[in-house]
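User: Fold this; tokens only.

Assistant: Input:
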Amino acid sequence: MKLRFFLVSDAAAISQDGKVIIHGVFDRITVVKQPSKEHPIVHPHAAVVYEVCGVDKTDVRVKIELRKADTNELLYLYPEVVFSVTEQAKIGGVLDGHIILPFLGEYDFVLVVDGTEVGRTSFNVVLKK
């Protein structure tokens, strides 16, 4: 199993013929006020995009986790997706929605396939100066 890509962007889609269309890849979100657990910042729209090749079984379970990078604390677990793999032996997807950000600093999205972490992609939340 090989991770081809795993990134965070403003928007993404997969066309009917399998092309991955990605707009606005980013690794930093700038906020105008200090977030907290009681008053988090909500990034209104982001897409987490991934593709994994060399999948060697029929039904594959995929989870995406949002973690605090420095402590690895699980902040949010997105719903699991089950793929029925075709002859192409690859899986890919777009997780589309908002991100809740309770603190400044580095976050990791973690891609887990069948219980095994296959990749991480990071982004930072910084306060506007």
